From TrEMBL:
Subunit structure: Heterotrimer of A, B and C subunits.
Its biological purpose: Allows the formation of correctly charged Gln-tRNA(Gln) through the transamidation of misacylated Glu-tRNA(Gln) in organisms which lack glutaminyl-tRNA synthetase. The reaction takes place in the presence of glutamine and ATP through an activated gamma-phospho-Glu-tRNA(Gln).
Protein name as it appears in the record: Glutamyl-tRNA(Gln) amidotransferase subunit A
Reactions catalysed, as given in the entry: L-glutamyl-tRNA(Gln) + L-glutamine + ATP + H2O = L-glutaminyl-tRNA(Gln) + L-glutamate + ADP + phosphate + H(+)
Active site residues according to the UniProt entry: 79 (charge relay system), 154 (charge relay system), 178 (acyl-ester intermediate)
Organism of origin: Acinetobacter johnsonii
Pfam family, one: Amidase
Gene Ontology CC: glutamyl-tRNA(Gln) amidotransferase complex
Residue ranges occupied by any Amidase domain in the UniProt entry: 25-468
Extent of the signal sequence: none
């Protein structure tokens, strides 16, 4: 079969189970596409062809033996932030260019246990800091919809790989939008689960109170399959939650659109810098949901102006603490010929970290320093609580909250926005992380340059099934999620 890359996860699952094709055929098909097309997309940092084929053969044996799960033999790409035993894990940084983890992240281990075949590790902004994937030691990844544009970030490699049909789905992580924004820029569906729903064990830390892994795929249905693997309590992550997981696939039609109350925050649609096409496509998608029976209710989220400053204190503060471990001594990059220990520390960190990471370490260390701790860090924590309360108040009168995922479509590669301009682009995503809420991006059309636009739906805690269900039904009634970038149409 030459069009295996067009199949949904359900079709792959059924095709493998019904012996229409083998996991080896499917894996070889994807490896061929990667070899042919990823020279242009540059989504993979590491392709693990040999291991993938061995896993595929094991999957085929399991399918024959009747011990397969729904996903046995289905290929996946992992964001290069998830530790993979015996395979390089770089987090997009020179600091970890030589790092081979002695263990698997829980998400990776669960994927293996479910029989997923790892195609490789995909590119990202260094330590997940950024919105374009240009902050990677391995260079920029291209947006499959227009190779001169960025795929978004930080999970830009995950998004580009899926959008170019170089993986059927991928893992991502979202600290301030890094699943939703690249999904938006690449025309994909991406779910950021509630904080604590997916284990962070073995997921290289950026800002621990905000980081959360989740699925990136072509549809809500595909995301649901991956959520069934990723979600769940993990004794190795003390912030993971003991709450029962849903069967996200079985729940795809569990939420009625009829009567669904969708909150439209007044403040969100008056943001300076909200692109007219983005606004129009998002409004059209909401109109469609209204036609399907939902009620649109205008709401207030009064803390909107505080999102960017609050996030850009808390996230760098936690990052500066998490990144202390990269000292050139235990693992990672080590400067050559140090003259003493201090020189080793200084040069290892100066040479090993890129500019954006260093900027955030400086901001974070400053905000945590003795004289400024109360004025910046403690204040930001208080504002964070107010932002959370603002959402909880809104959820008293609505079921979900709608927003764009980003104020614009994908930037040009090399657009060279200032750090502040870049940070302002995170306005619609970061509050969700500050509050620990789940949110999903769904593709809802294109701008005048044929770049994808995304609708974000934010839910109350543990409403992942509801978000997936709403988007699934929207996708049953529309075809935006079936559109493919030209490069994805090419055969290998
Ligand atoms: N763009 C945001 C940042 O640079 C979010 C990144 C993320 O979610 N990892 O911090």
């Amino acid at each position: 079969m030459t069009d295996l890359h067009r199949l949904s996860i359900r079709e792959l699952s059924e095709g493998l189970a019904g012996a229409k094709f083998s996991s080896r055929e499917l894996t070889e098909h994807y490896l061929k596409r990667i070899a042919k097309l990823d020279t242009q997309v540059k989504s993979y940092v590491t392709v693990t062809a040999e291991q993938a084929l061995a896993q595929a053969d094991a999957a085929d044996a399991a399918i024959k033996a009747g011990t397969a799960t729904a996903l046995t033999g289905v290929p996946i790409a992992h964001k290069d932030i998830f530790c993979t035993q015996g395979i390089k894990t770089t987090a997009g940084s020179k600091m970890l260019d030589n790092f081979i983890s002695p263990y698997d992240a829980t998400v990776v281990a669960k994927g293996k246990a479910a029989g997923l075949v790892t195609l490789g590790k995909v590119n990202m902004d260094e330590f997940a800091m950024g919105s374009t994937s240009e902050n990677s030691f391995y260079g920029a990844t291209a947006n499959p919809w227009n190779l001169g544009h960025v795929p978004g970030g930080s999970s830009g490699g995950s998004a580009a790989a899926v959008a170019a049909d170089l993986a059927p789905f991928a893992t991502g992580t979202d600290t301030g939008g890094s699943i939703r924004q690249p999904a938006s820029f690449c025309g994909l569906t991406g779910l950021k689960p509630s904080y604590g729903r997916v284990s962070r064990f073995g997921m290289i830390a950026y800002a621990s109170s905000l980081d959360q892994g989740g699925p990136m795929a072509r549809s809500a249905e595909d995301c649901a399959y991956l959520m069934n693997v990723m979600a769940g309590h993990d004794a190795k992550d003390s912030t993971s939650v003991g709450k029962d997981v849903d069967d996200y696939v079985a729940n795809l039609n569990s939420t009625a659109i009829q009567g669904l109350r969708i909150g439209i925050p007044k403040q969100y649609f008056n943001v300076a810098g909200l692109d007219a096409d983005v606004k129009a496509r998002v409004e059209e998608s909401l109109k469609k949901l209204e036609d399907m029976g939902a009620t649109l209710i205008e709401i207030d989220l009064n803390m909107t102006e505080a999102y960017v400053p609050t996030y850009y204190l808390i996230a760098p503060a936690e990052a500066s603490s998490n990144l202390q471990r990269y000292d050139g001594v235990r693992y990672g990059y080590r400067a050559e010929n140090p003259i003493d220990l201090m020189d080793l520390y200084k040069r290892s960190r100066s040479e090993g970290f890129g500019a954006e990471v260093q900027r955030r370490i400086l901001i974070g260390t400053y905000a945590l320093s003795a004289g400024y701790y109360d004025a910046y860090y403690v204040k930001a924590q208080k504002v964070r609580r107010l932002i959370q309360q603002d959402f909880l108040k809104a959820f008293e009168s609505v079921d979900v909250i709608a927003a764009p995922a980003a104020p614009t479509t994908a930037y040009k590669i090399g657009a060279n926005l200032s750090p502040v301009e870049m940070y302002l682009g995170d306005i619609y995503t970061i509050a969700v992380n500050l509050a620990g809420l789940p949110a999903i991006n769904a593709p809802v059309g294109f701008d005048k340059d044929n770049l994808p636009v995304g609708l974000q739906l934010i839910g109350n805690y543990w409403s992942e099934s509801q978000l997936l269900s709403v988007v699934h039904q929207y996708q049953q009634a529309t075809d935006w999620h079936t559109k493919r970038a030209a490069i994805a149409e090419e055969n290998a």
